[in-house]
């Protein structure tokens, strides 16, 4: 994976080459593997007899795919101390047994001959083999010579069990008045071994946490194992393999990886039973189907990742891709959209592997659907994706924006205080309130026409009464009788005329059927048939003509029949004239239309009373329930906002206590800009002076308070409270109250604008003061340089939350003297043994950040001089891994400032840089 991660290490094991151990190399290695140890060293007493054999076994295990490495070592008794100081010498993995025998043991007088002679010193008769075992227990080496010879072979010195009787601390001289340890021997050590039962206390002691140790040193916990836990008795022995060990961060599992603890004695070492957990969400990997980094996988560390390279190498492309998937961009940002268009290319897919705080792997992908509209804009149809967590991304120049925007500072406070859950609760409550408002408006819209109809009920009732009064007049009653007679008169005339018409038609049709043209032949039969035909036609014609004449006579009689001495039709016409004149005098068309109107009005009244009003009553009850619900939701919303403000105040206090030289407070004065912006929009085009808006703002009226004035219809109260004109108050009431008389319905006003106003709160404002070391007092944040401001904000941002923090070139916004401070704070923010931290992904061209902050994963990228398959630019990953990986180290050294960064890393602890 080419990344720094925690590895299980035990550097103090014994095999049967030690006089007091019976473990064979085969059994030892198998048990090491079973216990999950990645890197180990066998340090037998004064001898290296099993090194070659163990090397062969480990090489065989590596060929089987087992991730394990062996470092040759030896435990040497030195000539210092009352019971002899023991030291462990650990050599690089490439140092062979032969090299140690030829170039190390002779200098220490630890050759087999030297040890045999020591064994025979008091027992000359012992055989060589027996004398060798005795000599191993009695032979001592010169301390200074051990150190020198170990360094000549590139080894490191570990002080074995330093607090025991044969440990190096027995030689330390404590000066009570200074409480300071003074011993040159300690300076010869590279690493201190801690006690098994007091490992954490010892580690802090050697890190000089309390200033009572001579220097800062790395420390490890080893097992000093002599046994395998084969039975209960062995299990209780602390010197059982797998019982004690150290977690060390390393990329390559080798001596080079181990020695990074010399440079980072705190960051690279963790003494705990379990591997330090990752409790924060992180981006595990990113891969694209095309574009600049086509098919190149970026596999990130959960901790610090730095992306390095020369100018124009494509460092920022990685951040651009992450921004795209997380939707952290403005579609109107033409510069970013243009980069995305050219470096990712449309229709290509960005795949992200994400790991949430519970360790669950979640893969997401987003396809770029981008169309260039013109030289100034793009159309982005890329579909957003659902993500398990959010990220914080700051592009170049973004930190300076935070120094200028109040809302960005407030967001940082929320991040630091872990207040996002309250913000999420507030957002949830806002959605509930918006849903409530939408339902009220929908309900109101559903009955708005019904309300208009119902509001006309009294007019309809009045019209019915007026028409009924008119229709009850005697003249109208009398004329209704004539109208009824006229209806049947007209019906009779109509029917008789219809019969007459049909008679005339029948005569024509009969003539066509019966008038037959006979030939002139002298044919008796034909002559007779002709006579019959003419006779029939004559009889039918005569009968029909008589009937037709009678009908016409009847029509005439009906048309002129009399009532008394007057023709009825003339009487009717006189009455009609009289009736018409009466209608005109009373503004009516005719009695039929008025009767129809009366019927229509009565139908409308029935509809209102039986359908419209019940529907309105039912819907109003539903709205009342929604309004009651809204009052409860609003109270919960206001309570959440009050709680948020209280927690912001507590967060600011904590920051002041925990952050050196920074004083953070939540100002008593609220920010009313949201209220101001709302009022300006409402009053635009309404002839309201700007001063009137400022008067309302100066009155410190929140949206909640303004809305309450409107609900209470307290125009006078608002006018007095806000010191505004009645015209201004009237405009506000008119715009927010709606046109419906809600009092009649027993409802509070319903309008989208009023609902919006209720949610507008006065924002908290962050006040930041920084301690000026020159003037010895706190000064307002704004009085410092932009670079200083960015440095202070980064101090807060590094611990803001557990979400991934991604920054493009943070050093560009820092004053040079503050970069070191930023690196120190970054180190403090990195993952500890409890897993409490966040993932960092930084694009940087300052190699001090890469090296001194000890990046767990470094990506050196470069721009290739060839085009990709799509005709665009192409990039590559030149090297990746931890800073100790040779290819990464060389890549860093090739960049400006790389050599100096590695030198500074060594100088932190007084070490020399080795190539």
Automatic annotation (TrEMBL):
Residues 416-473, 591-650 form a coiled coil. Residues 9-80 form the Polymerase/histidinol phosphatase N-terminal domain. Gene3D superfamilies: Metal-dependent hydrolases, P-loop containing nucleotide triphosphate hydrolases. Keywords: Coiled coil. SUPFAM superfamilies: P-loop containing nucleoside triphosphate hydrolases (SSF52540), PHP domain-like (SSF89550). It comes from the Bacteria. InterPro entries: P-loop_NTPase (IPR027417), PHP_dom (IPR004013), PHP_domain (IPR052018), Pol/His_phosphatase_N (IPR003141), Pol/histidinol_Pase-like (IPR016195), TrlF_ATPase (IPR054787). GO terms for molecular function: 5'-3' DNA exonuclease activity; 5'-3' RNA exonuclease activity. NCBIfam families: TrlF_fam_ATP. This is Phosphoesterase PHP domain-containing protein. It comes from Thermincola ferriacetica.
């Amino acid at each position: 994976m080419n990344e720094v991660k925690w590895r299980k290490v035990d550097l103090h094991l014994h095999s049967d080459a030690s006089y007091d151990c019976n473990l064979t190399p085969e059994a030892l290695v198998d048990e090491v593997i079973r216990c999950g140890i990645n890197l180990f060293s066998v340090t037998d007493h004064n001898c290296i007899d099993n090194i070659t054999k163990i090397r062969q076994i480990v090489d065989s295990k590596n060929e089987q795919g087992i991730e394990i490495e062996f470092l040759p070592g030896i435990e040497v008794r030195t000539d210092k101390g009352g019971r002899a100081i023991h030291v462990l010498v650990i050599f690089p993995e490439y140092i062979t047994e032969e090299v140690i025998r030829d170039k190390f043991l002779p200098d220490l007088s630890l050759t087999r001959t030297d040890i045999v002679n020591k064994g025979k010193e008091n027992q000359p008769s012992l055989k060589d083999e027996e004398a060798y075992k005795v000599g191993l227990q009695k032979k001592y080496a010169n301390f200074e010579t051990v150190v020198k010879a170990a360094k000549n072979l590139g080894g490191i010195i570990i002080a074995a069990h330093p607090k025991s009787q044969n440990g190096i601390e027995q030689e330390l001289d404590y000066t009570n008045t200074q409480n300071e340890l003074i011993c040159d021997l300690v300076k010869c050590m590279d690493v201190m071994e801690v006690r098994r039962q007091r490992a954490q206390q010892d580690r802090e002691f050697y890190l000089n946490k309390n200033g009572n140790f001579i220097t800062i040193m790395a420390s490890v916990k080893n097992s000093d194992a002599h046994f395998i836990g084969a039975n209960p008795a062995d299990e209780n022995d602390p010197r059982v393999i797998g019982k004690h060990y150290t977690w060390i961060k390393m990329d390559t599992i080798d001596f080079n990886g181990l020695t990074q603890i010399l440079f980072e004695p705190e960051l690279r070492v963790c003494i705990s039973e379990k591997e330090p957990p990752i409790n924060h969400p992180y981006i595990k990997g990113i891969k694209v189907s095309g574009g600049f980094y086509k098919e190149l996988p970026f596999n990130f560390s959960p901790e610090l990742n730095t992306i390095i390279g020369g100018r124009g190498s494509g460092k920022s492309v990685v951040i651009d891709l992450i921004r795209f998937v997380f939707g952290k961009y403005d579609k109107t940002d033409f510069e970013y959209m243009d980069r995305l268009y050219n470096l990712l290319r449309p229709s290509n897919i960005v795949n992200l592997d994400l790991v949430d705080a519970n360790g669950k792997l979640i893969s997401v992908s987003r396809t770029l659907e981008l169309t260039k509209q013109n030289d100034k804009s793009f159309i982005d149809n890329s579909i957003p994706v659902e993500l398990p967590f959010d990220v914080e991304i700051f592009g170049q120049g973004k930190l300076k924006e935070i120094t200028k925007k109040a809302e960005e500072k407030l967001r940082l406070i929320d991040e630091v205080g872990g207040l996002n859950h309250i913000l999420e609760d507030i957002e949830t409550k806002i959605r509930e309130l918006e849903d409530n408002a939408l339902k009220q408006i929908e309900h109101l819209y559903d009955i708005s026409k019904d309300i208009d109809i119902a509001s006309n009920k009294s007019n309809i009732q009045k019209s019915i009464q007026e028409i009924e009064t008119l229709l009850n007049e005697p003249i109208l009653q009398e004329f209704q009788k004539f109208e009824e007679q006229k209806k049947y008169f007209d019906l009779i005339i109509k029917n008789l005329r219809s019969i007459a018409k049909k008679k005339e038609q029948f005569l024509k049709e009969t003539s066509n059927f019966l008038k037959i043209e006979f030939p002139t032949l002298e044919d008796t039969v034909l002559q007779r048939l002709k006579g019959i035909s003419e006779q029939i036609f004559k009889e039918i014609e005569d009968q029909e003509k008589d009937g037709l004449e009678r009908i016409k006579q009847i029509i005439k009689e009906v048309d002129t029949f009399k009532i008394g001495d007057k023709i009825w039709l003339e009487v009717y016409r006189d009455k009609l004239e009289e009736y018409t004149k009466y209608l005109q005098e009373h503004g009516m068309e005719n009695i039929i239309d008025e009767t129809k109107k009366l019927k229509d009005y009565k139908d409308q009244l029935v509809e209102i009373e039986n359908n419209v009003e019940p529907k309105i009553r039912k819907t109003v009850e539903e709205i009342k329930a929604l309004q009651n619900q809204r009052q409860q939701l609003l109270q919960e919303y206001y309570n959440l906002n009050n709680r948020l403000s209280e927690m912001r105040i507590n967060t600011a206090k904590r920051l002041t206590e925990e952050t050196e030289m920074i004083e953070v407070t939540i100002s008593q004065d609220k920010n009313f800009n949201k209220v101001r912006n709302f009022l300006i929009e409402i009053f635009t085009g309404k002839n309201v002076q700007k001063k009137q808006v400022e008067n309302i703002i100066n009155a410190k009226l929140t949206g909640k308070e303004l809305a309450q004035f409107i609900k209470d219809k307290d125009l006078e109260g608002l006018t007095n409270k806000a010191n505004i004109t009645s015209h201004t108050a009237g405009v506000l009431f008119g715009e927010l109250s709606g046109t419906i008389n809600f009092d009649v319905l027993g409802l509070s006003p319903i309008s989208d604008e009023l609902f919006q106003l209720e949610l507008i709160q006065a924002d908290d404002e962050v006040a930041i003061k920084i301690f000026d070391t020159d003037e010895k007092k706190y000064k307002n944040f704004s009085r410092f340089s932009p670079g200083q401001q960015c440095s202070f904000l980064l101090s807060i941002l590094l611990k803001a939350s557990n979400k991934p923090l991604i920054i493009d070139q943070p050093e560009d916004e820092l004053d040079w003297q503050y970069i070191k401070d930023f690196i120190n704070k970054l180190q403090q923010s990195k993952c500890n043994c409890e897993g409490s931290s966040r993932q960092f992904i930084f694009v940087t061209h300052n190699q001090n950040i890469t090296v001194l902050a000890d990046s767990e994963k470094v990506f050196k990228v470069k721009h290739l001089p060839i085009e990709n398959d799509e005709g665009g630019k192409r990039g590559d990953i030149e090297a990746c891994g931890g800073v100790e990986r040779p290819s990464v180290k060389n890549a860093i050294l090739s960049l400006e400032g790389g050599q100096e960064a590695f030198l500074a890393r060594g100088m932190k602890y007084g070490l020399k840089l080795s190539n």
